[in-house]
Amino acid sequence: MVRCPVEMLPVRTFPTTLRREVPMDQTSIAAVLGKLDSQVFVLTAADGDRRNGQIVCWVQPATIVPQVPRVLVGIGRLTYTRELIEASRRFALNLLGKDQWRWVPHFGFRSGRDVDKFATVPFERGITGSPLLPGIVGYLEAEVRSVLDGGTHFFYLADVLAGELVADREPLRLQQIPELLPPEDLSTMIRLLERDSARDLALLR
Questions:
Q1: 87-113 tens-digit pLDDT
Q2: For 7-44, how does the pLDDT look when each residue is reduced to its tens digit (9 = 90+)?
């Protein structure tokens, strides 16, 4: 298999003088960002016998040209799944239905370095070798075209190679998760988000 080198997008930075001059109202900013919502995916990747999947929400179409479909996907730089993407340069996006919220704890609360998340989950391998889950709304398989290092996350611009709308029903959205998770799982999610937020803050300083 011939693999083209991945282009690392140049990062142009600008001085943040305005941030120091104008006090930041974190509560107001959080209120605006809280109005945003996004669909929930299980992003899967594989490299040889290694495989993993994790929850992602930062997924956006990156072109309006139907003949050249692309997506932009953000994934944490410290995750095991990102390591697999860096090795294989390919991944799949499994769009979850609202009734599949139980996969949020399964794929989102543990690291693939510690457990094989697919040991008890049926799946098929797509053309990229990435696991495709059963009963999802749909999937996209993609190959990385370029990557932007955002500090805490890597943002992959990827060419979509294949996709299918498996079941035309309501997808799971990020803001629905707190209402669907049992109290114990919700507490775990909040604790993990607080831990990751503190870790990411250190990476951004």
A1: 999 999 999 999 999 999 999 999 999
A2: 555 555 555 665 556 677 888 888 888 887 899 999 99
* pTM of the predicted protein model: 0.88
Long-range Cβ contact pairs of 175-184 (< 8 A, separation 24 or more): 175/37, 176/98, 176/101, 177/40, 177/101, 177/104, 180/98, 180/101, 181/101, 181/104, 181/105
Distance set, CA 108 to CA 7, 8, 36, 99 (Å): 29, 27, 20, 16
Q: Read off the tokens for 93.
A: 């996006």
Query: Considering only CA atoms, which of 52, 55, 62, 53 is closest in space to residue 40?
Result: 55
